[in-house]
Amino acid sequence: MGRNYLSGPNFFNLDASLAKSIRFTERFNLELRLEANNILNHVNYTNINTVVNATNYGLPITAASMRSLTAVVRFRF
Predict the structure, then answer these.
(1) Rounded to whole angstroms, how far apart are CA atoms 73 and 29?
(2) Which CA distances in Å does 68 have to 28, 38, 43?
(3) Distance (Å, rounded) from C-alpha 60 to C-alpha 46?
(4) Is residue 46 part of a domain?
(5) In a domain? residue 60
(6) Which string of DSSP letters, residue by residue, matches 49-74?
(7) Residue 31 belongs to a domain
(8) Number of domains within the chain
């Protein structure tokens, strides 16, 4: 079998972020931010077993990271 002959499953990922900036005075600013990676929590397989004589040949071995949320509060002065 040649190189790059075996194609893996499709990769689907949706990321999103929301941000709000609140200005108190001319010098003070508060930023609120929420970031989401893989927001739909879709399973993405990243590695396919290519050992020909293995019992799990052609099956996925690992998966990409699941949904993660990050909250950020930043005070600027």
Answers:
(1) 11
(2) 30, 7, 13
(3) 7
(4) yes
(5) yes
(6) ---TTSTTTTSEEEE----EEEEEEE
(7) yes
(8) 1
pLDDT digits (tens, 9 = 90+) for 38-62: 999 988 888 888 888 888 888 888 8
Instruction: Express each pLDDT in 11-42 by its tens digit.
Output: 889 999 999 999 999 999 999 999 999 999 98
Determine, yes or no, domain membership for 10.
Answer: no
Angle at the Cα of 18 (from 29 to 45), degrees rounded to 5?
140
Q: How far is CA 22 from CA 47, 71, 73, 77, in A?
A: 44, 16, 11, 12
**Domain containing 70: what range?**
16-76
Written as six digits, the tokens of 74 are 């930043």
